[in-house]
Amino acid sequence: MFCTNHPTVETLVTCGKCGKPICPRCLVDTPVGQRCRECGLQKSPLYQVPLPLLMVGIVVGVIGGIIGGMIGSRLQFFVFFLAPVIGTFVGEAVSRAIKRKHSPALALVTAIAIGLGALAGPLRLALLHFPPSDPESLMTFSRYFFNPWAWLFILLAAPSAYWRLR
Ligand SMILES: [Zn+2]
Ligand SMILES: [Zn+2]
Fold it and tell me: What is the pTM (predicted TM-score) of this model?
């Protein structure tokens, strides 16, 4: 098998879309696999989310992410089991809302919403001690703000939602 553009170069790779043989020089890596230059530069319809659908996706992602995050920051030890579940669940809800298409931007919005939801509780408690006027209130402030369970939840849940949607 020889490359379509370079008839003297032998290759084992074919474009994942049109099936043309392509050599490493002609190959374009895309999120959906190896493509020839023509197919790789076209935007995959999988990534084209119509605006109304995207708006629904944003609403679901922001509300779902914040609710998921607020629940998540209270889980304490159960965060290990439940954070990936909640992250995947939110990602799945958004994915359904945008008819199983993919959107890296929406993935980011959803991940940020999860973070904001998870930090809402700790942040509210932390702000009661803001601005920290003495070392003791500074300690209290950081103890609330750096609530390890909330941050751990974000670390485990946000990527699960992100990878589901990107
Ligand atoms: Zn192609
Ligand atoms: Zn080539």
Answer: 0.73
